[in-house]
Write a structure and sequence with these properties.
The structure is a homodimer of 440-residue chains.
Chain A lengths: L1 H7 L11 H18 L2 E5 L6 E5 L8 E7 L19 E3 L2 E3 L7 H18 L5 E7 L9 H7 L8 E4 L11 E6 L1 E10 L5 E2 L10 H10 L22 H8 L6 H8 L12 H6 L3 E10 L8 E2 L2 E10 L5 H15 L5 E10 L2 E2 L5 H14 L4 E5 L4 H10 L3 E4 L14 E3 H19 L2
Helix pairs in contact in A: 3-12, 4-11, 10-12
């Protein structure tokens, strides 16, 4: 626990160039920790933040397991909503409170603790291990795919293990076999050369604040369906067994989701349950919108420019570049008169889907059953880990998503936390999982 | 000019409570300046910022003229767009650059300079003078109407003179006989209890950023017409002579407005010219919109709340409270599912209209003609000076709007400026105007 706290104290915010030093320091610390556990470790420079690699002695005739995690974290604002310093972890009510406690430091560090324990107790691991920790997941992993391609041979493996997803409810072991993809952009609306007096010019000059609102509003119809031409063209439909299993999955009722999120009511695409909307349907979201005066009192300006940050969650079948082409065409086509729109594309990643009934999938189900003493549920995840699709394409292997996050651990939000119980469960899971995978 | 610079150095931003001391210091300075010019002056406390009053010796059998101005100014952000410090005035290219140079310190101070000159040269003024300067115009003059009501007798006058509006073009004397009114509000959209991960919850929980956009978008139809039920019900139609005169008024062509504003093209309500849209048609404008992440890079959140500041410019016939009732009903009716809306009402003021062909109107036209050696044009203004309607209702008199601002003097924007020529013209105008009014 002391070591996890040390790890959580690094403010390794990858999106903010002001924290570059913290990201590097965190990578160095992890390499040292791997070495202390008995692994050969290395901090590998990339075009962005470094990748940290750890390996044991590789032996023939046993499977190679790549454990992936990311040591970078999301920004912490609004800081005033945190009940304790996001980078000074504390334990309260059986939970570890800190930015990155769940996403993803706590989860991958449980694996590293399991590995260290096994080596200490058994002298070695039952599988060949490659542990790969990146520092750019929260900004879309721009350097990792080139890294995989450059080290394809050294990273060859049979299966990949990732704990960066969720358990559907406390005590319910969960195997994820799918993730949504993502594609992001920011757009700028520009009108007059400067902010104008809304009395002197209002009515004859288009308002960029109105224009940004009209464009964001144009992304959906009144039924919550995305209104971009061709957006749903390539979506692969849900299978019947998925709809059936998800109907009774714990933690996904309307009451559950209202309880966890505090939303006044739920709203989404007509014709789908919440689980289906979150795990198997694509979305268009505005992550930020701004323009004009935000301060105290009133300032009757017509703002010169306004902005929005958009992200689109994608499902199997949808190609991120194709979707972003459609988004850009939509924004340009619907841009109101009297202003211009400029789209800046951001990061993207394909959606991912594997077969939870494969040999590796069955081994993972068994490890979950033994660790948590309950039948695992099979789900997809609403979040995006674009690198999982890259692993598939570059290394040719599937990923087991063994989530340890709980619905109320508030990842990406103020007061992120991780239960001590799941941190300890993750340590046990690592040991059982490696045994099961060694036995295939 | 040195004295004007002293006046412009006060950061008398009325909307920002952090500048309360500067507003008070500015009022004290003005009272001292009036006394130096030979007026009896007084700083009168109110519930908010003070009113400064100056008078000459009042004589029977001559008209009483009330000269109104406001010594408070708009905020200065975005500060980085100013080419020089907004509160350290400089002269460059024949213009005085500073916040308040045009709106309104430069304009009312020209009158005070004219008054000081007349008293110095002639020993006295040809009219009874009441000069009234307030410190709350930019926040809607909340204390002035009570002040007028409390001092109705002492403030009795025959006509009011205000230079806080525009000349349509350099060298074209302009008499304003109408102003738009205004009503303002801010609304908050609230959804989940905190920012959510847009992958984990996006699709099943409504996004307050989308909701604020949809509500702002709902304010207009595609033709630029306000889409709030009953918004146009009480609008008094334009008269034929107004449409005729405005067709050829200088400075109001599409090319002129594009040149001054830098907008890529013009857009407004179908069926009206720009002059008509600005001077005689009501509007709905978003002055600020914000929610979610605005920083560097991306942060894939679904924001917990989003906000917009709205203002509505009103025309004769429309009642501000009635319009705000309709706005609030519209926002509540159109609030998307899954979020709540809360409306906070701001300041408001009635539109104003007088007869430019009355005796006072003809005197003002003559003063403008003599001062600028050209026929004046008769216009309304797009901006709002709510107190003008209050003068009408409380004191029972009309106001002559003798604008000295030019279209490119950038009021309410960075790099506000006032031409030295119009500052000097304002001094001359004051002297001729008082002579004309004395002669009625």
């Amino acid at each position: 626990m002391d070591e996890l706290f040390e790890l959580l104290r690094f403010a390794s915010i990858s999106t903010d160039s002001g924290h570059k030093v913290d990201v590097q320091a965190c990578a160095d610390w992890l390499a040292a920790r791997m070495a202390a556990a008995g692994l050969q470790s290395e901090v590998c420079p990339t075009g962005g933040h470094p990748v940290v690699i750890g390996r044991n002695e590789q032996e023939a005739d046993r499977p190679t397991v790549l454990v992936y995690g990311h040591y970078d974290v999301q920004p912490v604002d609004p800081l005033e909503l945190w009940e304790s310093d996001p980078f000074d972890p504390v334990i309260r009510d059986g939970r570890i409170w800190a930015r990155g406690s769940t996403d993803n430091k706590g989860q991958f560090f449980a694996h590293l603790c399991g590995i260290a324990e096994t080596i200490e107790e058994d002298g070695k691991l039952p599988v060949n291990l490659i542990m790969l920790l990146e520092g750019e997941e929260e900004i879309g992993s721009p350097s990792l795919r080139p890294f995989l391609e450059a080290h394809r041979g050294e990273l060859a493996c049979d299966v990949i293990v990732v704990s960066d997803t969720g358990m559907v409810a406390p005590g319910v072991p969960t195997l994820g076999y799918g993730l949504r993809g993502i594609t992001c952009c920011e757009f700028a609306i520009r009108g007059p050369a400067r902010d104008l007096h809304s009395g002197v010019y209002g009515g004859a000059v288009a308002n960029p604040g109105t224009a940004v609102a009209r464009l964001v509003a144009s992304l959906h119809d009144d039924n919550g369906r995305v209104a971009i031409d061709g957006f749903y063209d390539d979506v692969v439909a849900l299978e019947d067994w998925e709809r059936e299993m998800w109907r009774s999955v714990p933690g996904m009722s309307e009451e559950d989701i209202l309880g966890v999120t505090g939303a006044p009511s739920l709203f989404g695409e007509s014709g789908y349950t919440s689980a289906e909307r979150l795990w198997a349907r694509p979305t268009a979201e505005v992550n930020g919108i701004w323009g004009g005066y935000q301060g105290e009192g009133s300032k009757t300006v017509l703002p010169a420019e306004s902005f929005a940050k958009l992200s689109f969650r994608l499902v199997p079948g949808q190609d991120p570049s194709d979707i972003m082409d459609k988004v850009q065409a939509h924004l340009e086509k619907h841009c109101p008169e009297g202003v211009t729109v400029e789209v800046e594309r951001g990061h993207h990643g394909q959606a991912y889907r594997s077969d939870p009934h494969s040999a590796h999938g069955r081994a993972a189900q068994e490890a979950l059953r033994k660790t948590f003493r309950a039948d695992p549920v099979l789900i997809r995840e609403g979040g995006s880990i674009p690198i999982i699709q890259d692993f598939k394409e570059v290394l040719g292997v599937d990923t087991l998503l063994l989530g340890l996050a709980l619905p109320d651990c508030q990842i990406h939000s103020p007061n992120e936390n991780f239960t001590v119980e799941n941190f300890e469960g993750g340590i046990r899971l690592n040991r059982v999982l490696f045994e099961e995978l060694a036995g295939i």
